[in-house]
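Handout for the seminar on molecular recognition.
Each group receives one record of this type.
Step one: identify the two inputs.
Step two: read the structure output and locate the region that could contact flavin-adenine dinucleotide.
Step three: write two sentences on what you found, then compare them with the reference statements printed after the record.
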Amino acid sequence: MQRATDFDVVVVGGGPAGATAAAEIAAQGASVLLIDREGRIKPCGGAIPARLLADFDIPPHLLAARIASAEMVAPSGARVGMGVGNGFVGMVDRDSFDRWLRQRAIDTGARYAAATFVGASQTADGNISISFTRERMSAETVSARLVIGADGSNSAVRRVLFGKAGKPPYVFAYHEIVRSPTGTHPGFDPRRCDVYYQGRISPDFYGWVFPHGDTTSIGVGSAVKGFDFKAATKLLREAAGLDAQETIREEGAPLPLKPLKRWDNGRNALLIGDAAGVVAPSSGEGIYYAMLCGRIAARTARDLLRTGDARALAGARREFMRAHGRIFMVLGFMQGFWYRSDKRRERFVAICRDRDVQRLIWESYQTKQFVRSDPMAHVRVFFKDLGHLVRMAFQ
Ligand SMILES: Cc1cc2nc3c(=O)[nH]c(=O)nc-3n(C[C@H](O)[C@H](O)[C@H](O)COP(=O)(O)OP(=O)(O)OC[C@H]3O[C@@H](n4cnc5c(N)ncnc54)[C@H](O)[C@@H]3O)c2cc1C
């Protein structure tokens, strides 16, 4: 028989996934402890889609910038501009954004500990005990019916409870935060993101320039072992005309690119967000998906707490993949195909010149749905794609 626990749920990690899960579990009336080690701003480009702002009730003051267009840069230097249309892409500063999300969880009723998770063990009655340390204090242990691991790509919860085999494949992403130019600056527009598809900048992913108001994130991703991220970022900064800007921070983190096959241990542990490998291939977008995981995890926790049936846990991955598995598969295919050589990258950027392609890209980014309003646009894109592939084969 299960005995009473200190908390219904302990959430480890107060980033977008964990803070959302904790807020929504507290809103359901369950007792929840949110643990975050704090002290490090998550390295992140901070780009978020319209759907996130609406679905998760994000106040406008958290936006450091509103991006109106993107420019794709091909290996030849050819540039393709893509206006966002009526909307905009939001840019958040992860320091204030994550703090705000954690505060919302606290205001909704979650208990909070600025502490580092150090271990977990199963108890004889089917519950789980979680140990953590606060600065300069001895370890504390609490018991819970469920632990949610939302502690990012290097998840300690995953390591402790799921073993090393659970690690998802990833690219490494590195960026430099620089002071944004003031006034007019050649090649820089504070309302435009630039995306570089050039093998010299990234042999298997892409490089980016994402303005955030006073600061700008300039970075690259790659899974190639021994890749020189700093040298690539230097090239990127030169190409963008931002090499002389003051550097404020240099940092990086793994970016998982495939959801794990299992997010739960069949008993009382669930992984979400980066810890579960949930980042979109091709784009590396993870904030929206992390927050959605947090919301789904809260529903899953409610089912588990209500019924005591641990099979409910498997529903979290199922629900997520039902909604987004297909788009992740398409994006995975695109990354594997288009990011392989400069010849393909050149073609990929050329494809983005097409109005139908641009509309499909923005609508699916902003709404997180396959666009169904204009089926003919899909057909046109399909045939144009085919034309590009055939031309590439004969070049
Ligand atoms: C360079 C870079 C650029 C990116 N750019 C974008 C972008 O522009 N747009 C986008 O959507 N996504 C982007 N991503 C991906 C995005 O940052 C992640 O997918 C997202 O942050 C995942 O959220 P999360 O809550 O799962 O994990 P995280 O944001 O990593 O949060 C994990 C939390 O757990 C805490 N934690 C870790 N270990 C412990 C521990 N042992 N004990 C207690 N707490 C712990 C950390 O303090 C942190 O707050 C980028 C990633 C990188 C690396």
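Reference statements: The chain has a mean pLDDT of 93. The chain is about 35% helix and 25% strand.
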